[in-house]
Amino acid sequence: MFNNLIGKVVFQNTVGEYLFSIALFIFLIILIYVVRIIVMNRLEKWASTTKTTIDDFIIEHAKKTLTPLLILGSFIVSIQNLIIIPDITKIIYILGIILLIAMSLKFVMSLLDYLMSVYFKKNNTNETRQRSLKWVIIAIKIVITCIALIILLDNMGIKISALVAGLGIGGIAIAFASQAVLGDLFSFFVILFDRPFEIGDFIIVDDLMGTVENVGIKTTRVRSLGGEELIFSNTSLTNARVRNYKRMARRRVVFKLGVTYQTSLENIKEIPEIIKKIISSESEILFDRAHFASYGDFALIYEVVYNVLNSDYNKYMDVQQSINFKIKEEFDKHKIDFAYPTQTLFINKLI
Length: 351
What we know:
By secondary structure, this protein is an alpha+beta fold. It has 3 domains: 2-160, no CATH class; 188-244, SH3 type barrels (Roll), CATH 2.30.30; 251-333, 2-Layer Sandwich (Alpha-Beta Plaits). It has helices at residues 2-6, 15-48, 54-78, 86-123, 127-155, 161-177, 179-194, 234-239, 265-280, 313-333; strands at residues 9-10, 13-14, 202-205, 208-215, 219-224, 229-233, 242-244, 251-259, 285-295, 300-308. The strands form 3 sheets. The protein has a 5-stranded antiparallel β-sheet with strand order 6-5-4-3-7. It has a 3-stranded antiparallel β-sheet with strand order 8-10-9. α3 runs antiparallel to α4, α4 (86-123) packs antiparallel against α5 (127-155) and α9 packs antiparallel against α10. The radius of gyration is 39 Å and the shape is elongated.
Protein backbone atom coordinates (compact mmCIF):
# COMPACT_ATOMS: atom_id res chain seq x y z
CA MET A 1 0.00 0.00 0.00
CA PHE A 2 2.88 2.36 0.86
CA ASN A 3 4.57 1.56 -2.44
CA ASN A 4 1.33 2.27 -4.26
CA LEU A 5 1.10 5.64 -2.49
CA ILE A 6 4.72 6.51 -3.32
CA GLY A 7 4.18 5.58 -6.94
CA LYS A 8 0.93 7.49 -7.31
CA VAL A 9 1.18 10.21 -9.99
CA VAL A 10 -0.08 13.69 -9.15
CA PHE A 11 0.29 16.49 -11.71
CA GLN A 12 2.79 14.45 -13.79
CA ASN A 13 4.99 13.66 -10.77
CA THR A 14 4.90 10.76 -8.31
CA VAL A 15 4.32 11.28 -4.60
CA GLY A 16 7.81 9.91 -4.00
CA GLU A 17 9.32 12.64 -6.16
CA TYR A 18 7.38 15.26 -4.21
CA LEU A 19 8.58 13.81 -0.91
CA PHE A 20 12.17 13.74 -2.17
CA SER A 21 11.96 17.40 -3.21
CA ILE A 22 10.48 18.36 0.17
CA ALA A 23 13.16 16.42 2.05
CA LEU A 24 15.92 17.97 -0.09
CA PHE A 25 14.50 21.45 0.50
CA ILE A 26 14.38 20.92 4.28
CA PHE A 27 17.91 19.51 4.27
CA LEU A 28 19.27 22.47 2.30
CA ILE A 29 17.57 24.96 4.65
CA ILE A 30 19.06 23.23 7.70
CA LEU A 31 22.46 23.22 5.98
CA ILE A 32 22.14 26.94 5.19
CA TYR A 33 21.40 27.88 8.80
CA VAL A 34 24.13 25.60 10.22
CA VAL A 35 26.73 27.03 7.84
CA ARG A 36 25.42 30.54 8.54
CA ILE A 37 25.83 30.10 12.29
CA ILE A 38 29.35 28.66 12.00
CA VAL A 39 30.67 31.00 9.30
CA MET A 40 28.98 34.16 10.54
CA ASN A 41 30.15 33.65 14.12
CA ARG A 42 33.74 33.34 12.95
CA LEU A 43 33.39 36.36 10.65
CA GLU A 44 31.84 38.44 13.45
CA LYS A 45 34.72 37.54 15.80
CA TRP A 46 37.20 38.52 13.11
CA ALA A 47 35.36 41.77 12.37
CA SER A 48 35.38 42.72 16.06
CA THR A 49 39.19 42.73 16.02
CA THR A 50 39.49 45.18 13.10
CA LYS A 51 39.47 48.98 13.38
CA THR A 52 37.14 49.59 10.43
CA THR A 53 33.37 49.22 10.57
CA ILE A 54 32.73 48.37 6.92
CA ASP A 55 33.30 44.66 7.58
CA ASP A 56 30.73 44.72 10.41
CA PHE A 57 28.26 46.39 8.07
CA ILE A 58 28.79 43.82 5.29
CA ILE A 59 28.47 40.85 7.66
CA GLU A 60 25.34 42.24 9.30
CA HIS A 61 23.59 42.88 5.97
CA ALA A 62 24.85 39.67 4.41
CA LYS A 63 22.78 37.76 6.98
CA LYS A 64 19.69 39.74 6.00
CA THR A 65 20.09 39.61 2.21
CA LEU A 66 21.88 36.33 1.48
CA THR A 67 19.62 34.11 3.58
CA PRO A 68 16.40 34.76 1.57
CA LEU A 69 18.34 34.33 -1.70
CA LEU A 70 19.87 31.04 -0.54
CA ILE A 71 16.46 29.77 0.54
CA LEU A 72 15.08 30.64 -2.89
CA GLY A 73 18.04 28.90 -4.51
CA SER A 74 17.43 25.82 -2.36
CA PHE A 75 13.79 25.74 -3.44
CA ILE A 76 14.76 25.94 -7.12
CA VAL A 77 17.34 23.17 -6.70
CA SER A 78 14.88 20.94 -4.83
CA ILE A 79 12.26 21.07 -7.62
CA GLN A 80 14.65 20.37 -10.48
CA ASN A 81 13.58 16.72 -10.64
CA LEU A 82 9.89 17.65 -10.93
CA ILE A 83 7.90 18.28 -14.05
CA ILE A 84 6.28 21.67 -13.55
CA ILE A 85 3.76 23.52 -15.68
CA PRO A 86 5.54 26.24 -17.74
CA ASP A 87 3.31 28.97 -16.31
CA ILE A 88 4.29 28.03 -12.75
CA THR A 89 7.95 27.90 -13.78
CA LYS A 90 7.62 31.40 -15.18
CA ILE A 91 5.98 32.62 -11.97
CA ILE A 92 8.78 31.11 -9.88
CA TYR A 93 11.36 32.74 -12.18
CA ILE A 94 9.67 36.16 -11.89
CA LEU A 95 9.41 35.85 -8.11
CA GLY A 96 13.09 34.94 -7.99
CA ILE A 97 14.05 37.97 -10.08
CA ILE A 98 11.88 40.23 -7.88
CA LEU A 99 13.49 38.87 -4.71
CA LEU A 100 17.02 39.16 -6.15
CA ILE A 101 16.49 42.77 -7.28
CA ALA A 102 14.73 43.71 -4.04
CA MET A 103 17.52 42.29 -1.86
CA SER A 104 20.22 43.90 -4.02
CA LEU A 105 18.39 47.22 -3.94
CA LYS A 106 18.01 47.02 -0.17
CA PHE A 107 21.73 46.32 0.25
CA VAL A 108 22.74 49.24 -2.03
CA MET A 109 20.41 51.63 -0.19
CA SER A 110 21.78 50.56 3.18
CA LEU A 111 25.33 50.92 1.87
CA LEU A 112 24.64 54.51 0.73
CA ASP A 113 23.19 55.40 4.15
CA TYR A 114 26.19 53.80 5.86
CA LEU A 115 28.73 55.64 3.71
CA MET A 116 26.93 58.94 4.30
CA SER A 117 26.91 58.45 8.09
CA VAL A 118 30.62 57.57 8.07
CA TYR A 119 31.36 60.67 5.99
CA PHE A 120 29.45 62.90 8.42
CA LYS A 121 31.31 61.47 11.42
CA LYS A 122 34.70 61.77 9.73
CA ASN A 123 34.31 65.31 8.38
CA ASN A 124 32.16 66.92 11.09
CA THR A 125 29.98 68.60 8.49
CA ASN A 126 27.50 71.27 9.52
CA GLU A 127 23.73 70.78 9.52
CA THR A 128 23.16 72.58 6.21
CA ARG A 129 25.77 70.49 4.42
CA GLN A 130 24.31 67.31 5.91
CA ARG A 131 20.87 68.28 4.66
CA SER A 132 22.25 68.99 1.18
CA LEU A 133 24.09 65.67 1.04
CA LYS A 134 20.95 63.85 2.13
CA TRP A 135 19.12 65.34 -0.86
CA VAL A 136 21.95 64.12 -3.09
CA ILE A 137 21.66 60.61 -1.63
CA ILE A 138 17.88 60.68 -2.16
CA ALA A 139 18.42 61.63 -5.82
CA ILE A 140 20.92 58.78 -6.24
CA LYS A 141 18.48 56.34 -4.62
CA ILE A 142 15.73 57.43 -7.02
CA VAL A 143 18.01 56.86 -10.01
CA ILE A 144 19.08 53.42 -8.72
CA THR A 145 15.45 52.45 -8.06
CA CYS A 146 14.48 53.46 -11.61
CA ILE A 147 17.32 51.37 -13.04
CA ALA A 148 16.28 48.39 -10.89
CA LEU A 149 12.66 48.79 -12.07
CA ILE A 150 13.75 48.87 -15.72
CA ILE A 151 15.83 45.69 -15.21
CA LEU A 152 12.85 44.00 -13.53
CA LEU A 153 10.45 44.93 -16.32
CA ASP A 154 12.96 43.73 -18.93
CA ASN A 155 13.31 40.34 -17.20
CA MET A 156 9.54 40.02 -16.96
CA GLY A 157 9.39 40.15 -20.74
CA ILE A 158 8.02 43.68 -20.99
CA LYS A 159 9.54 45.61 -23.90
CA ILE A 160 11.02 48.76 -22.47
CA SER A 161 12.88 50.06 -25.52
CA ALA A 162 9.98 52.34 -26.50
CA LEU A 163 9.66 53.54 -22.89
CA VAL A 164 13.39 54.28 -22.63
CA ALA A 165 13.34 56.10 -25.97
CA GLY A 166 10.36 58.17 -24.87
CA LEU A 167 12.02 59.04 -21.61
CA GLY A 168 15.17 60.01 -23.48
CA ILE A 169 13.32 62.36 -25.83
CA GLY A 170 11.34 63.82 -22.94
CA GLY A 171 14.52 64.29 -20.94
CA ILE A 172 16.17 66.18 -23.79
CA ALA A 173 13.13 68.45 -24.13
CA ILE A 174 13.07 69.14 -20.41
CA ALA A 175 16.82 69.81 -20.40
CA PHE A 176 16.48 72.41 -23.17
CA ALA A 177 13.55 74.04 -21.42
CA SER A 178 15.32 74.33 -18.07
CA GLN A 179 18.95 74.98 -18.94
CA ALA A 180 19.30 77.74 -16.33
CA VAL A 181 17.79 75.62 -13.56
CA LEU A 182 19.95 72.61 -14.44
CA GLY A 183 23.02 74.86 -14.65
CA ASP A 184 22.34 76.13 -11.13
CA LEU A 185 21.72 72.56 -9.96
CA PHE A 186 25.08 71.35 -11.28
CA SER A 187 26.73 74.45 -9.81
CA PHE A 188 25.14 73.50 -6.48
CA PHE A 189 26.93 70.13 -6.66
CA VAL A 190 30.18 71.94 -7.52
CA ILE A 191 29.80 74.17 -4.44
CA LEU A 192 28.78 71.18 -2.32
CA PHE A 193 31.76 68.97 -3.18
CA ASP A 194 34.47 71.50 -4.10
CA ARG A 195 33.56 73.75 -1.14
CA PRO A 196 34.86 77.16 -2.32
CA PHE A 197 32.87 78.55 0.61
CA GLU A 198 30.59 77.28 3.38
CA ILE A 199 27.89 78.57 5.67
CA GLY A 200 29.31 81.35 7.87
CA ASP A 201 32.16 82.32 5.50
CA PHE A 202 32.65 86.00 4.70
CA ILE A 203 33.00 86.36 0.92
CA ILE A 204 33.40 89.16 -1.62
CA VAL A 205 31.98 88.78 -5.13
CA ASP A 206 32.88 91.72 -7.38
CA ASP A 207 31.81 94.76 -5.32
CA LEU A 208 29.33 92.82 -3.14
CA MET A 209 30.26 91.27 0.18
CA GLY A 210 28.67 89.50 3.12
CA THR A 211 28.35 86.32 5.17
CA VAL A 212 27.00 83.14 3.54
CA GLU A 213 23.74 82.12 5.23
CA ASN A 214 22.36 79.40 2.97
CA VAL A 215 23.41 77.38 -0.08
CA GLY A 216 20.34 76.15 -1.93
CA ILE A 217 19.79 74.02 -5.00
CA LYS A 218 19.37 77.10 -7.23
CA THR A 219 20.57 80.13 -5.23
CA THR A 220 23.00 81.08 -2.48
CA ARG A 221 21.94 83.68 0.07
CA VAL A 222 24.44 86.12 1.58
CA ARG A 223 23.83 88.63 4.39
CA SER A 224 25.56 91.89 3.53
CA LEU A 225 27.23 94.26 5.99
CA GLY A 226 24.31 96.64 5.55
CA GLY A 227 21.87 93.95 6.72
CA GLU A 228 20.08 93.24 3.43
CA GLU A 229 20.03 89.77 1.89
CA LEU A 230 21.98 89.25 -1.33
CA ILE A 231 20.77 86.40 -3.55
CA PHE A 232 23.20 84.93 -6.08
CA SER A 233 22.49 82.18 -8.59
CA ASN A 234 24.83 79.24 -8.04
CA THR A 235 26.07 79.48 -11.63
CA SER A 236 27.10 83.12 -11.21
CA LEU A 237 29.10 82.21 -8.09
CA THR A 238 30.94 79.30 -9.72
CA ASN A 239 31.81 81.55 -12.68
CA ALA A 240 32.90 84.52 -10.54
CA ARG A 241 36.11 85.26 -8.67
CA VAL A 242 35.10 84.75 -5.05
CA ARG A 243 37.33 86.02 -2.26
CA ASN A 244 36.83 83.98 0.91
CA TYR A 245 38.10 85.86 3.97
CA LYS A 246 37.01 83.16 6.44
CA ARG A 247 39.87 80.91 5.33
CA MET A 248 42.50 83.64 5.48
CA ALA A 249 45.16 82.38 7.90
CA ARG A 250 46.75 85.82 8.25
CA ARG A 251 45.98 89.35 7.10
CA ARG A 252 48.81 91.34 5.47
CA VAL A 253 48.56 95.03 6.34
CA VAL A 254 50.35 97.81 4.45
CA PHE A 255 50.01 101.41 5.54
CA LYS A 256 51.91 104.65 4.94
CA LEU A 257 52.55 107.73 7.02
CA GLY A 258 54.32 110.97 6.31
CA VAL A 259 56.44 113.34 8.41
CA THR A 260 57.41 116.90 7.64
CA TYR A 261 60.55 117.84 5.73
CA GLN A 262 61.68 119.79 8.80
CA THR A 263 62.27 116.48 10.67
CA SER A 264 65.91 116.05 11.63
CA LEU A 265 68.05 113.40 9.96
CA GLU A 266 68.52 111.68 13.32
CA ASN A 267 64.78 111.31 13.81
CA ILE A 268 64.31 110.23 10.19
CA LYS A 269 66.68 107.32 10.82
CA GLU A 270 65.04 106.45 14.17
CA ILE A 271 61.44 106.27 12.86
CA PRO A 272 61.68 102.71 11.34
CA GLU A 273 63.04 101.34 14.63
CA ILE A 274 60.36 103.18 16.64
CA ILE A 275 57.62 101.67 14.48
CA LYS A 276 59.19 98.20 14.65
CA LYS A 277 59.19 98.28 18.48
CA ILE A 278 55.58 99.46 18.57
CA ILE A 279 54.30 96.75 16.20
CA SER A 280 56.39 93.99 17.79
CA SER A 281 54.84 94.77 21.18
CA GLU A 282 51.35 93.84 19.91
CA SER A 283 50.02 90.30 20.40
CA GLU A 284 49.23 88.03 17.40
CA ILE A 285 51.26 90.35 15.15
CA LEU A 286 54.22 89.50 12.94
CA PHE A 287 56.30 92.54 11.98
CA ASP A 288 57.59 92.55 8.41
CA ARG A 289 59.29 95.87 7.62
CA ALA A 290 59.28 99.67 7.98
CA HIS A 291 61.17 101.84 5.50
CA PHE A 292 61.65 105.46 4.49
CA ALA A 293 60.10 104.80 1.09
CA SER A 294 60.03 108.08 -0.86
CA TYR A 295 59.95 111.87 -0.96
CA GLY A 296 56.41 113.08 -1.34
CA ASP A 297 55.09 116.43 -2.47
CA PHE A 298 54.81 117.70 1.09
CA ALA A 299 56.04 114.78 3.25
CA LEU A 300 58.71 112.17 3.79
CA ILE A 301 56.81 108.90 3.15
CA TYR A 302 57.30 105.76 5.27
CA GLU A 303 55.85 102.40 4.26
CA VAL A 304 55.08 99.86 6.99
CA VAL A 305 54.13 96.19 6.53
CA TYR A 306 53.00 93.68 9.17
CA ASN A 307 50.81 90.56 9.40
CA VAL A 308 47.88 89.98 11.72
CA LEU A 309 47.83 86.28 12.63
CA ASN A 310 44.05 86.26 12.69
CA SER A 311 41.39 86.58 9.99
CA ASP A 312 38.96 88.56 12.18
CA TYR A 313 38.46 92.06 10.77
CA ASN A 314 37.66 93.53 14.20
CA LYS A 315 40.94 92.16 15.54
CA TYR A 316 42.81 93.85 12.67
CA MET A 317 41.11 97.19 13.36
CA ASP A 318 41.82 96.96 17.11
CA VAL A 319 45.49 96.32 16.39
CA GLN A 320 45.75 99.12 13.83
CA GLN A 321 44.11 101.54 16.24
CA SER A 322 46.51 100.58 19.04
CA ILE A 323 49.48 101.02 16.69
CA ASN A 324 48.22 104.45 15.64
CA PHE A 325 47.86 105.56 19.28
CA LYS A 326 51.39 104.42 20.13
CA ILE A 327 52.94 106.02 17.03
CA LYS A 328 51.31 109.32 17.92
CA GLU A 329 52.57 109.01 21.50
CA GLU A 330 56.16 108.21 20.47
CA PHE A 331 56.27 110.91 17.80
CA ASP A 332 55.14 113.47 20.38
CA LYS A 333 57.96 112.37 22.70
CA HIS A 334 60.53 112.75 19.93
CA LYS A 335 58.93 115.98 18.65
CA ILE A 336 58.28 114.47 15.22
CA ASP A 337 55.49 116.20 13.29
CA PHE A 338 53.11 114.46 10.93
CA ALA A 339 52.91 116.07 7.52
CA TYR A 340 49.77 117.50 5.99
CA PRO A 341 49.24 119.35 2.71
CA THR A 342 50.93 122.75 2.93
CA GLN A 343 52.22 125.35 0.56
CA THR A 344 55.04 127.82 1.13
CA LEU A 345 54.77 131.13 -0.72
CA PHE A 346 58.01 133.00 -1.35
CA ILE A 347 57.65 136.75 -2.05
CA ASN A 348 60.51 138.69 -3.52
CA LYS A 349 60.55 142.38 -2.49
CA LEU A 350 60.94 144.57 -5.51
CA ILE A 351 63.19 147.61 -5.04
